[in-house]
Amino acid sequence: MTTALPSKSAPSAALPGLDAATLSSLKKLTQYYAVTAFIALMIGVLLGPLQALNYGGINVYDYPLLKVLIKSYYQGLTLHGVLNALVFTQFFISGWMLYLPVRDLNVRPNMRFAWFTYLMMTAGLLTAAVPLLTNDATVLYTFYPPLEGSPVFYIGAAVMVAASLLVAGQVVWLWLAWKRAHPGRVTPVVTYMSVATWLMWVVAALGLVVEVVVMLIPWSLGLTRGVDPLLARTLFWWTGHPIVYFWLLPAYISWYAFLPRQAGGRMASEGLTRLAFAMFLVFSVPVGLHHQYADPNVQNSWKIIHMFLTFLVAVPSLLTAFSAAASLEDAARARGGRGLIGWVRRLPWGNASMTAQVLAMVSFIFGGAGGIVNASMAFSPVVHNTAWIPGHFHITVGTATTLTFMGVMFWLVPHLTGKRLASPRTALASVWWWFTGMMLFALGMHWQGLAGVPRRALVSASAQQGVYDAMHLGLPKIITAASGGVLFIAAILFYTVLWRTLLSRRVDDPESTPIPRSDAISAAGETLADASPLVRRTEPLLALTFVALVLVILVYGPVIAPMLTNYQFIPGQRLW
């Protein structure tokens, strides 16, 4: 029960469709993006157990052999965060969300430009990797001055972000060309979700681009006498929270468009899907001040406004939860499922790709609830900068996003290469081990965070161990330490499957594993004239982007303007 993209629109004479050579090149490019992403994840995952052991009260960073490779806990944390949260996600998403709309629209991209963006992103990664590996950019991956890294690191990171924006530009350009060639047509839903995500990222990335290019690079080169930490933090969080949605929305694309078919069902509603992504586009960016409740010189009124806007983002997340659950129930009942929740047993739990994504969705229930706590001015001070935050982060990005992408790889690699998935049983086991390990880590870290254990700290080597002993954290420390071992086993299982698949012989036509495009219970229709009012009003994505940009300026402009007029020049510091 699978159908391949594209399905709705034949190419017009003015807009050439994909030919065999272009499709082959596109698949190879997507494979390069995805494999590079998972190499970065693999290296980052190897550092993960060291973080878990630290919060289990075991300091391994002083071992002589490890000291040769990693100078300190803080360098290890920087590498872990940059590789897993920035490199892995950016590479996978760039390949994923170029490939999907091109196949959905059946348009021919400029493959020279597409390959250039990959090479540019890789060059940025390699440039930034040098100071990271030499302990010259141990800044904890947050771009928080006055912690100062090498200018080479900031330049490499800027090149990577610029490359992702070029991918966004190419996708939007292709979509606009398709719109001109098909006037009055409804944008196919996979393309709609991809374009909305890219446009949101363009608006969101502006804060980080300004911080790095205008402030941090000149500062690290010694061209300015200092940098304003408060302004830098504000610009960072302009991007820093919306980037979470940039990581999550590509997973949502699979949950909405592909997971229902993999489970044997249908997408609940294309109109509801478009509404959710339109809301993410408009409301995802002006939310950053909820990370700065403790920062001085930011009026509480603006913090409260950002808090309510953050709560508003929960609405499309709840729409996603409803739609995904409805699609899965539709699938299970079609397979004979009965009862209020008994239908869950009828889902195809032997399918590793489906199971990975369903478990990712389950994890995000807890992640969404924790996000409401983090966004609340009443509750945030209790958990701010404690171990609760990385516990939350590993549910949202480490599980909801990463486990979804792992599940996607189980069908994407055969689709791109014509190679059959090696050992589906091992793939299924890796999914359950990863989910279990992440839930254990989240439990232990949330528990410790509520007790007041700080985040980003070498707590296992603290000079005041009596403080931690008095917290009676024996059990959560054991849980946290054990989670690192469970996740390490999960990684071994997953990468065994991935590398065995990639290194095996091609035995099938790649298109024999088609993209699992789902039909919809409530479809949007093909023409705007026949579409529902909801579909028509959410179709103009460029207009919605303009609304999003105006909203961002309205809620950030009055916050940033006083910082510019009272700019503080603070010199840099290198602590590790």
From TrEMBL:
A Gene Ontology biological process term = aerobic respiration
Subcellular location field: Membrane
Q: Which PROSITE patterns match?
A: COX1 (PS50855), COX1_CUB (PS00077)
Its membrane topology, per UniProt?
Multi-pass membrane protein
Where does the chain cross the membrane? 32-53, 73-101, 113-133, 153-178, 190-217, 237-259, 271-289, 304-328, 349-373, 393-414, 426-447, 478-498, 541-561
All copies of the Cytochrome oxidase subunit I profile domain together span 27-510
Q: Does Ribosomal protein appear among the keywords? A: no
Q: Which family does it belong to?
A: Belongs to the heme-copper respiratory oxidase family.
By what name is this protein known? Cytochrome c oxidase subunit 1
